[in-house]
User: What shape does this take?
Amino acid sequence: MNRTNLDAQSSTPPAPEVIEAMRPYLSGNFAAAASAHYSGKQVRKAIERAREQIAAAISASDVEEIILTGSGTEANNLAIKGILAARKPFGNHVISTPLDHPSVWFSIQSMISQGFEHGVWEVDGVGRLPGIESLGEKLRQDTILASVPVSTPELGIVQPIHPISEWLEREGIALMLDATTAGGWTPLDVATLKPSLMSLSPHRFHGPKGVGVLYKRRGVSLVPLIHGGNQEFGLRAGTENVASIVGAGKAFELMSGILDERIENACKLQTFLLREIKTKIPSTGIIGPAPGKDRLSNQLNIVFEGVEGEALMLMTNVRGLDCHTGISCVNRHMESNRIPEATGLPDDLFRSSLLLSWHEEHTMADLRGAVEIIAACVGKLREMSPVWNNLQRGRMPSRLSLLPETVKSS
Assistant: This one.
């Protein structure tokens, strides 16, 4: 059976160039980078080259602003816990959003036991942060950090970062950007966005797993989480995962050269997929903003009215389609209601949806085949659905009207 994987928001295949760049460090060049001998110095040069590639791709001014970690989750933990601990003498209040990834949300919660207080900046029905004035109302004299996700997978929303960063810079408040799901799919120029900290996850744009990146602006202080050696400028002790670091550097280099083309192609696939679904499957809508500048170009979270999303995911999986339910597995397990509650949307709309995401190796033929599988499975499930039966008989109203910027099919 030929399989189609439309779960690029979770991970993407390493690019061939990435695999080739990693190969020498999985076999011959096995030395530890901390070693003072010739082989160790060659490995150290490879790590520093990767750091240069990453810095160039996001317009960092100094390679020492690039901290290499074991994952995006670790980068978020180091950013949140590290800066709060370092700035505790200046205040104890942090503000974030209800759309935080669990690695951000629970990092903040863990610091409450150390005397920190957490304020939440609410969002509207598509997940968009409101005007700067509302942020000003949330800030206090003891606010030392604001954390904002650049994008949110379940909603596809891309936040307006530049005015937020300008406001916070004037107020002298540090800004942490969680770009772990946005990297590779939207411009992330730190010279323009001006964050104090920004996390990235290379495996979401054709890099390897087992490595994360934290941008730390020059002059920003962090308290390390892991103690031991002096790796990563004393902020992340432990022997480096050299092959993955080298692969990450190559992924950043590739991304910086084709980002505009990648976004343009992803937008074409997004338009095509939405048209195919509207044409072939009645009573559907999308969660989050309409396609355009406010939405990631490589995903759609689509509601199929009268269908249970997990059953639909399992049925499509049997037929060769890998995709996600409308709320990510991590969120369903740990914080099932936070995003629906934040947007004011009923939980059942998320439970009736599939999150489909793609990358540049996908074609319109791939998406057309996926829609055929989904349409067949939706039809089967609706035949068995009492909710769908009641909708068809007019015994209950459609829930699609609750989607604030829905794109509905008749």
In short: The chain has two domains: 16-256, 259-402.
